[in-house]
Design a protein that fits this description.
The N and C termini lie far apart (about 60 Å). The chain contains 14 helices and 8 strands. Helix 12 (about 280-295) packs parallel to helix 14 (about 315-324). The chain is of the alpha+beta class and about 325 residues long. Residues about 1-10 have low confidence and may be disordered. Helix content is about 35%, strand content about 10%. The chain folds into 2 domains: about 1-35 and about 55-125, no CATH class; about 145-324, no CATH class.
Amino acid sequence: MDWLAETPERRADPRALWPEVRSVVMLGLNYGPEEDPRALQARPDRAAISVYARNRDYHDVIKGRLKTVAQKLAARTGAAVKVFVDTAPVMEKPLAAAAGLGWQGKHTNLVSRDYGSWLFLGAIFSAAELPADAAERDHCGSCRACLDACPTDAFPAPYRLDARRCISYLTIEHKGPIAPEFRARLGNRIYGCDDCLAACPWNKFARAAREMKLKARPEFEAPALADLAALDDAGFRALFSGSPVKRIGRDRFVRNVLYALGNAGDAALGAVAAARLDDPSPLVRGAAVWALARLDPARAAAERALRAAAEPDETVRAEWEAAA
């Protein structure tokens, strides 16, 4: 735990959220994986889910702990408190750096000398005046491992991220079809991406998470793409109950799975993609067309002759045209 008194940090003025705030307490919780998550890229028929999303939703885990600490702080100071866990426009990373928890690395995420890149952040706003800790200085030096590791070249410069190219944004926040130029670069990543985090040399000091609710559930460590592609809405909700994955919805999730399926390089998986050509969701049907064309071009050509003209959605028709 570190204490941060009011800061003139121009990108993260807490008073814009709560005028009574006099101090901010920044906290970090380690969610380090047991092994390098990039190892899963060698198994293209398996899905890679970002480390942070392989168990319970971190919002629920951290918010409960923050409230416990906040209540004790309020009892000690007699001042009001508020807690935030990625649920408001709080600039957690610069605040955490100012509080001494770490520094913002060239990948724009917080880096800790003790935990590497694997920290969840939470904030407690207090109306009490509290002493400030010293800020942490940047220890990246000339290293650019995180920048070079990015599959989609999402860093136009050190400390700058183009979110429109980031796999985490594309697989989680982006609602429509993912641009063709990025699909092959997704590999088997179906929810988020850890490459820039995992590449950081400071992870040599990282340690695996001790919080059981943040340790990976076995069924999320390397699930088969073929099984995930077959999920209907009820199956998706049941599998990802309590997981942050659930919030993107079944259609967007299966879209991601089908792009990964198309990257698997196994023609036998073409039948799995073909099974989604009749899916109720145009988003899923379009991704299935792309995957089938990659896995089994002959079958894609035959299906196109039967389906393209009758397809009611223009985005899916465009996928059929591109697959010709």
